[in-house]
Write a sequence for this structure.
């Protein structure tokens, strides 16, 4: 009796193409009595197997995808929230400066403020503020006697927390501000009120002096300057006792009235070359800062009205050519004498008027 032949089932061969690579798995053999189990079929890449779940292809909120590197978390560091520095300030005591530093979860940070001179790149002031509360605006307490000269400076902050975290500098919160310190403006003394006429009895008024034919003492273009050139303007330790008439070097200086020269000389640190004229009107005139070598008169010389006495200059304590004119009542620098404001008299005699 012939033994029956075993039936065999051969699975058809499949090919899965991935790009340009072909995979050809071995044929699976159906299980028969006394045979072996067939091999699992090969599935295309990315095909979900039955009963399983596919790995996410994009990161999920709150988790991390396998095989994708997470960026390291940024460590906490102090950040400048405010640094208030004026752009300009006058020379002298440093201007008010306030600051605020923030750092989440940190109560205090150590702060240091430096003022750096940009011309030398060196600090001229350093203030160690110690541990400062975060989230609060605090002022900088400058040392007593601290002074800043005119120039450009950087006001710079440095800070660190208890974990050695240093100040995080960003474009909008770098912790550096520029300060320009300017020289103080020169304050000119106030001009004294104009005197229209002397208040003393027996003293000629400007109109009376002009009616007598008095001559304007400067024979050329001139001005009366500013407040610092006026009678009564403050000087170092005294007040200005005359009126300055600014004019060109070498302009003739004339005698307003006829009279006699009381004295003349040279005071190198003050009036320079000068002459004093006594007149019968009761006035003494003093002419100062004459050009060197130009004095045409001396003590005891009698002069006529309009006679040239000297040339305008800038000898003595003078910074520009001018005539310093003083008018005295009761005698020049005598016990009973005193100066008066010459400007009303000069204006009354000034027929051509000032040129500026």
């Amino acid at each position: 009796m012939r033994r029956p032949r075993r039936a065999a089932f051969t699975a058809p061969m499949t090919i899965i193409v991935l790009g340009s690579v072909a995979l050809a798995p071995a044929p699976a053999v159906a299980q028969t009595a006394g045979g072996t189990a067939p091999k699992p079929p090969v599935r295309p890449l990315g095909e979900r197997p039955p009963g399983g779940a596919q790995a996410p292809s994009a990161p999920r909120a709150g988790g991390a995808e396998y095989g994708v590197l997470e960026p390291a978390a940024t460590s906490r560091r102090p950040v400048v929230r405010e640094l208030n520095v004026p752009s300009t300030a006058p020379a002298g005591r440093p201007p008010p400066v306030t600051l605020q530093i923030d750092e989440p979860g940190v109560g205090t940070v150590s702060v240091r403020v430096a003022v750096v001179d940009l011309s030398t790149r060196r600090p001229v002031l350093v203030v160690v503020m110690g541990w400062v509360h975060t989230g609060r605006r605090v002022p900088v307490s400058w040392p007593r006697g601290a002074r800043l000269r005119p120039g450009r400076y950087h006001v710079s902050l440095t800070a660190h927390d208890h974990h050695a975290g240093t100040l995080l500098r960003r474009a909008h919160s770098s912790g550096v501000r520029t300060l320009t310190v300017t020289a103080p403006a020169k304050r000119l003394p106030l001009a004294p009120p104009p005197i229209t006429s002397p208040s003393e009895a027996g003293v000629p008024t400007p109109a009376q002096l002009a009616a007598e034919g008095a001559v304007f003492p400067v024979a050329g273009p001139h001005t009366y300057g500013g407040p610092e050139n006026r009678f009564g303007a403050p000087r170092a330790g005294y007040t200005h006792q005359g009126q300055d008439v600014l004019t060109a070097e070498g302009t003739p200086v004339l005698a307003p009235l006829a009279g006699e020269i009381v004295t003349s000389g040279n005071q190198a640190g003050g009036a320079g070359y000068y002459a004093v004229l006594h007149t019968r009107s009761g006035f003494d005139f003093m002419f100062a800062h004459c050009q060197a070598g130009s004095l045409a008169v001396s003590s005891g010389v009698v002069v006529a009205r309009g006679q040239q006495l000297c040339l305008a200059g800038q000898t003595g304590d003078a910074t520009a050519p001018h005539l310093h004119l003083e008018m005295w009542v009761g005698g020049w620098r005598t016990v009973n004498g005193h100066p008066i404001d010459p400007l009303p008299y000069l204006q009354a005699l000034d027929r051509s008027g000032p040129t500026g």
